[in-house]
């Protein structure tokens, strides 16, 4: 363990912090492991296109997830369930092209790894070779440990995802997971299973804060919380939620840092009014 300067949340040994560090090469899973040793917290956001990803990359977000939340946040589906591997490959390739420093994690969509480890390896290989991601993510704890193990043996870093697993919405709904002694024990078994299988990090979605804190203390790999309280090593939010673009009511765990829906709506209305009223384009926007 290297010593951490608590005031600045920066490593005191001269190495680069995941967030706030000046390094320009691409972040690796090794950098992520070192951050946990230093007790450093880090942010993760979703991204679905090159332009948005470049904004987050330039802002210093060390890890970007090309989430299958693209299904409902980018492609107009109700849930993540219909998203295909072809769609994820196209979106992930765009995010890789738009970034230089962030580690890009590609979500394996529903149906691309449930058949077993061999299918999972074929799907993950597609994201690595055709999109250029540095890691993949898949849902499930004990039930996915064989998939995780084979991918890791093949040299593909895996981020696991336990607690609420949205690809199982038709079976479990969108409910808090790990409430009550039995469910808490299952979550602890899932967390240990993905670590033992070789995952480099694990997302904890919608689990009680106390349980997420316990998992974070027990595991040596970093935990990435979403609706899992303040004690996880990292926090992830869906970018359209935290920037106020997603329509409608937000889950309780979302903090809205901007109101892009309002900003964009107001701007496009002024454009429309300018066109209708003949005040755009002006002489300065015209060529002769
Ligand atoms: N826009 C968006 N944001 C997300 O965080 C997100 C997605 N889409 N799509 C994929 C999954 C699905 N997720 C979800 C979806 C719904 C709830 C939800 O309804 N939560 C409620 C009730 C929880 C309860 O009390 O049991 C909440 O208020 O948090 C939570 C996470 C998280 N992910
Ligand atoms: C919510 C995060 C963890 C995710 O899996 C996604 O955005 O698809
Ligand atoms: Mg996902």
TrEMBL record:
Residues 1-21 are annotated as: Disordered. It catalyses: (6R)-5,10-methylene-5,6,7,8-tetrahydrofolate + 3-methyl-2-oxobutanoate + H2O = 2-dehydropantoate + (6S)-5,6,7,8-tetrahydrofolate. Pfam families: Pantoate_transf. Keywords: Cytoplasm, Magnesium, Metal-binding, Pantothenate biosynthesis, Transferase. Pathway: Cofactor biosynthesis; (R)-pantothenate biosynthesis; (R)-pantoate from 3-methyl-2-oxobutanoate: step 1/2. GO terms for molecular function: 3-methyl-2-oxobutanoate hydroxymethyltransferase activity. SUPFAM superfamilies: Phosphoenolpyruvate/pyruvate domain. CDD domains: KPHMT-like. The keyword S-adenosyl-L-methionine does not apply. Binds 1 Mg(2+) ion per subunit. Homodecamer; pentamer of dimers. Catalyzes the reversible reaction in which hydroxymethyl group from 5,10-methylenetetrahydrofolate is transferred onto alpha-ketoisovalerate to form ketopantoate. This is 3-methyl-2-oxobutanoate hydroxymethyltransferase. The gene is panB.
């Amino acid at each position: 363990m290297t010593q951490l300067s608590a005031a600045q949340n920066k490593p005191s040994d001269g190495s680069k912090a995941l967030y706030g560090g000046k390094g320009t090469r691409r972040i690796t899973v090794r950098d992520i492991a070192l951050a946990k040793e230093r007790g450093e917290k880090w942010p993760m956001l979703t991204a679905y296109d090159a332009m948005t990803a470049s904004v987050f990359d330039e802002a210093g977000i060390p890890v970007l997830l090309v989430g299958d939340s693209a299904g409902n946040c980018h492609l107009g589906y109700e849930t993540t369930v219909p998203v295909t591997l072809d769609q994820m490959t196209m979106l992930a390739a765009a995010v890789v092209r738009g970034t230089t420093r962030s580690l890009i994690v590609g979500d394996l969509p529903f149906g691309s790894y449930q058949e077993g480890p061999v299918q999972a390896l074929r799907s993950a290989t597609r994201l690595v070779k055709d999109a250029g991601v540095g890691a993949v993510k898949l849902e499930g704890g004990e039930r996915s440990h064989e998939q995780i193990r084979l991918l890791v043996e093949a040299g593909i870093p895996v981020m696991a995802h336990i607690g609420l697993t949205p690809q199982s919405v038709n079976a479990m709904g969108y409910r808090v997971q790990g409430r009550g002694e039995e469910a808490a024990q299952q979550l602890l078994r899932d967390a240990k299973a993905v670590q033992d299988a070789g995952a480099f990090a694990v997302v904890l979605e919608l689990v009680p804060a106390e349980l997420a804190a316990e998992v974070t203390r027990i595991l040596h790999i970093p935990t990435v919380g979403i609706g899992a309280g303040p004690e996880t090593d990292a926090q992830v939010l869906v970018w359209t939620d935290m920037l106020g673009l997603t329509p409608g009511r937000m889950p309780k765990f979302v903090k809205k840092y901007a109101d892009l829906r309002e900003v964009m709506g107001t701007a496009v209305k002024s454009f429309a009014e300018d066109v209708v009223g003949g005040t755009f384009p002006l002489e300065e926007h015209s060529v002769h």
